[in-house]
UniProtKB/TrEMBL annotation:
SMART domains: WD40. InterPro entries: Quinoprotein_ADH-like_sf, WD40/YVTN_repeat-like_dom_sf, WD40_repeat_dom_sf, WD40_rpt, WDR27. WD repeats lie at residues 5-40, 488-529. This is WDR27 protein. SUPFAM superfamilies: Quinoprotein alcohol dehydrogenase-like, WD40 repeat-like. Keywords: WD repeat. The lineage of its organism: Eukaryota, Metazoa, Chordata, Craniata, Vertebrata. Residues 206-226 are annotated as: Disordered. Residues 212-226 have a biased composition (Polar residues).
Amino acid sequence: QPLHLSGHHHSISALSFGSKINPLLVCSASRERVVVWNLDECTQKVQEGLTPRGTVIGTLLGMVLHVKFSPDDRQVAVCAGNRIYVLSAKEEAILAELDGHLAPVTAAEFCTQEKSMLISVSEDRTFKARKVWDCSSGQLIYQSGVLTAFPLLSLLIDEENKQIITGSAEGQLWIFSLISDHNYRCVAHINLKKEQEKFRNKVWKSGKETGSEGQNTSKLCKTNNMRPEGSVETSLPILLIEHCDFSVCFHKEENTSSALNTSYFWIGSSTGFLIINLANFELEAFLSYKDYSDLSIRFARSCALARKAVNGKVLCLIASMFEDMIAVLEVNLAALVRTQQSDFLCGNKNSLSVIASSYFFPFLSNHYFRVIGHKRVKSMVKDQPLVFHNKIKSSGYTAAPQMAMFSPNNVKKNELSKWKTSCKRTNKEYPLESSPPIKYEKEISVTCKPTPICCIQYSGDGEMLACGLADKTVLVFNSNLTDTYNVFSGHDGAINSVGWSHDKKWLVSASEDRTLRVWSVCNNEPVLILGKEKFCKTVRFAQFYFIDAFILLCCGAEFHLLSFHLDTTKDDLKRYKQRSVCKLVQKFPMASTMEITSLSAVNDFYSYIVLTAGSNRALEVFDLNAGCSTAVIPEVHTRSVHQICQNKGSSFSTQQPEAYNLFMTTAVGDGIKLWDLRTLR
């Protein structure tokens, strides 16, 4: 039977459970009083036939919007009007009275690292502020600037990552660092409305492309990008921020290495619940109230979540905004995430795969150019008549029609069959029955004086070898090292990386001089030069990608995806003008790292997977089909990974497809580790 506790004469405006289980306390607040209840004692009195009574700890404080126990349950922070009262949980005593906010205080949290520290957020008229207080003296330690034009409604202190998370009435989320040396700097700013729309489009497009719409995708997939006629756009107030028990829900699932080491949290809003990944600040799942016909509540006034999952399920309590009605939801977190994300994991619903499911690149289908074979042709935008409807749409003057970046029709069937035959004939596979090589066949000196060799790279067929030297040159040899095929000079710094194109016609090099150059193997002049103005930091690695359709390079803590068109013809009047063009498609930042130390992707066949390793010793897997990070493996080695080695042989060779999902990582002093991309172990 429910336990009825009566002691207030006005409506209860705030409620909070204590931090400890024994005894389990509850604090309730109304306009006229604040009461603390011991649930164990109240239950015992009810069993004895007596009326349970609580301890009044505050009276006539005003309209209370929020109450919160301290970590030891000895104090209660009461947000009443523009002030915060720190009350004793055992008797009616005001320990501290904190003012300074210019509008009603909406939330306050105690910091467990420092018991006397209290963090609060407020409406502050239309300008909202976040303040940190020292309860012992009532002194203001820090006050933030204006974050938004909308009230701050919710607050959470992430003790594990030492961060403050706060949300506004318009769906804006801010994350600040609690580390003492960081001075409460902003770590991330997330627009949940945009992230929610992006997530809707991604799930909807994946369901449409795979033909699985209506079968294994949620109702979220069916949501159209355009709002129906006559509908009203609603705001997304953040009512609740709570830790998500992600690892417990997935303790029996595969591919959970990243989930066990990554923090997730719930976002409760008036229209649904969202799950945010703290590693990449992306939306993992979204649950909308209106998608469920059995739920009569469409807009919530307040919501609450169980902190722990039971049998993989989380209990959610929501209260209606317009009616006197509450509802309890039981959410199967594993099923929710799997249903919404299984369709855009490289075409494989169970795990990641290096081999792409098709020649299409859906993530890049909205860019204003297309690739035919290996040439870039810009799409011409034709004038279209302007037609007025009830809802005015774009006439098409400023946008190009969407098209697929890669189509199987780009390669003729007879050419494709010839290419398959040539791959089978030219590719040399190491015989499995032979012992590993232990003796070198030949030794050659590349320069007259001692010069470090910074990088080496074999061509795809193993017939050519490129070397990048510290003396600013690139050398190309035959694989038997009998003769120097060509010498490329022009960089002003040591060569960091060299990479071959799939057809062996081009060579890409990156240098310490913050430039990238593409060379014709038959000529010693660069065909394409990207200067220092393109990159803020040194380019550490560069390679061709997606069968020479793109160039990947890493610069600082992010890697760039570039589209390009190479033109070797020259104009006699403008012979020094570069006719080759290059365009930045997308930047992909690696989470929580200062610099990317290694990058690897397959160019010999179509693959969406890009592997990166950072100075934080973590390895991150990016799926360019979905356009986001899909997995993070922290502390891969005891030191930073300096090389990632994938099986980059032809996809038409005799190897099993499973062999392409294996890769190795190496670190100085920590040996070599072999990983399986499907299990990330």
